[in-house]
């Protein structure tokens, strides 16, 4: 996969969240607070977001890393780091 910009990764993450929670008001999301709490995304929907991210970006998130995905900024940073690890 070609190197993606941080903005593209962020947009993809938001698209995946919206695919599970289409009513989410992403523009009101505070980046320093847990996104799941703000958008009322339960654990099942969270897993569906992760499946969508794996499908779109090819990044699988082990359960032990879920704590790194708390904020939207954390989610984007995690994806960015994992994509940088992936060989071309």
From TrEMBL:
UniProt source species: Halomonas nitroreducens
Pfam families: PP-binding
Domain Carrier residue range list: 7-83
Protein name: Acyl carrier protein
Domain of life of the source: Bacteria
